[in-house]
Each structure stands twice: as C-alpha cells, then as structure tokens.
Amino acid sequence: GENVEQHPSTLSVQEGDSAVIKCTYSDSASNYFPWYKQELGKRPQLIIDIRSNVGEKKDQRIAVTLNKTAKHFSLHITETQPEDSAVYFCAASKEMDSSYKLIFGSGTRLLVRP
Amino acid sequence: DAGVTQSPTHLIKTRGQHVTLRCSPISGHKSVSWYQQVLGQGPQFIFQYYEKEERGRGNFPDRFSARQFPNYSSELNVNALLLGDSALYLCASRLPGQGSEQYFGPGTRLTVT
After folding, report:
1. What is the reported pLDDT for B24?
2. pLDDT score for A107
C-alpha cells in the first residue's frame, strides 16, 4: 500500500546550523509533496511544497528537493532559529481534481538549541 | 474570511459510546477530508468528500463513517468507541484541482476512557 517513511524521528541542532529531514515514498504515481510544521497543540501548517515536475524549490531559509527516480524528497532548513523548533511532517499525494488524500510520514521533532 | 472550523474542541467519551465531530470548510471549498492523529504520530487519512460524495477512504473500520452536507460542511461519526480511538481528529478543506493548498482546522481532541 501507500507509505511514506521519514527520518530522523528526532533532530537536535545548534542555532544557526542547518537541519535536513528525509522522506521516501512508495507510490510512484505520487505527484505532490508538501511539508507541514506542527507546533504543540496546534494544527499542521504548510511551510513548503513541491510537485513532481520540479526538482528543487526554495523559500527563504527553507528548501525542498525531490528525486523522482529514487522516490526521495528532503527538507532543508538553513540558519535555524529557536522558533523553528516543532514537529515536521512530510506527505505525498496523487493530486487530482476531485480526489485527494495525503499520506503523512511519522514526523521529525526538531529542537533548535539557543 | 474564517478558516476551517471544527467542533467541539475537546470531547471525553466512554468505551462503547458514539461520537459525532463537525467541520465547516473555508467558504468556497467543496472538498473536505478527515484525518486521525494519534499522539506522537503523523495524521492518518480517514475520508475525503467532494460535492457530497465520498471520493476516498482510508484503512479504518466500518465504525467510522462520514457525510457531507449541501453547504459542504461535514460530520465524522465513530460508533462503539475504543480506547485506541483517542486522538486529535483533523478536518481539512481545499478547492478542487491541482495547485490548491489543503487547509487544516484546529482539530477535535477526543479522549476515550
């Protein structure tokens, strides 16, 4: 069945360092890969996404890369700040007009030490 | 414009009882999805509805059911509650078509004792 694996489960970095979170997906028909940030007790918030026709996308300190052949995608956060501390989820989806579901990874708890 | 809203915010039920959770999508959004998020895990897809029809179902037992109303709001029903049903239930809405972001509601925290 459809599956998304996410690593690592926890990640601790010093403020200013970079953080990398990696995911692999099983369904080769997946074409949309969002990343969500979830703070304690809050809803998941979309921080960046990438579609299968693009290999890399950047938004300020955040970037996502996609390797369709290997079915891997990664989140890169540079110059980390304490407010980046949260749980990050990757997800994969086959984006169609009326049918849509996200398969989430198990999450990475990121701690940025001041 | 209001975001996705859910009610109630918290709920405590006893094993064997039934629960109904409610969701109102963003105005204009015709697609509503439900996810279950057990503590420490990623959200798990339960259902998706579009134009009042079920368009997707996750790997959940028949105790879980849902429906979408003409105003695109939705209900998630869970019968014969088990302790393992304790979770945050998230509703999300989006416009149809590629390129549309899915917006999550604040969730309903269900505790089954």
Report:
1. 97
2. 97
Instruction: Tell me the C-alpha to C-alpha distance, in Å, between residue A96 and each of A57, A112, B88.
Output: 21, 37, 26
CA distance B39 to chain A (A): 10
Query: How far apart are alpha carbons A67 and A28 in whole angstroms?
Result: 11
pLDDT digits over B11-67, tens only?
999 999 999 999 999 998 999 999 999 999 999 999 999 989 999 999 999 999 999
pLDDT per residue as tens digits for the range B79-105: 999 999 999 999 999 987 777 888 999
Which pLDDT value is given to residue B1? Answer: 54
State whether residue B60 sits within 8 Å of chain A by CB. Answer: no
Coil vs helix vs strand at A11: strand
Gap between the Cα atoms of A92 and A32, Å rounded:
6
Yes or no, beta carbons of B94 and A100 under 8 Å apart: yes
Phi first, then psi, for residue A82 (nearest 5°) are -55, -35
The pLDDT value recorded for residue A41 is: 87
B100: distance to nearest CA of chain A, Å? 9
The sign of the dihedral angle between the CA atoms of B51, B53, B59, B62 is positive
What are the tokens at A81? 């700040």
Q: What is the 3-state secondary structure (H, E, C) of B3-28?
A: CCEEECCEEEECCCCCEEEEEECCCC
CB pair distance less than 8 Å for B104 and A44: yes
Residue A16 CB partners (closer than 8 Å, separation 6+): A79, A80
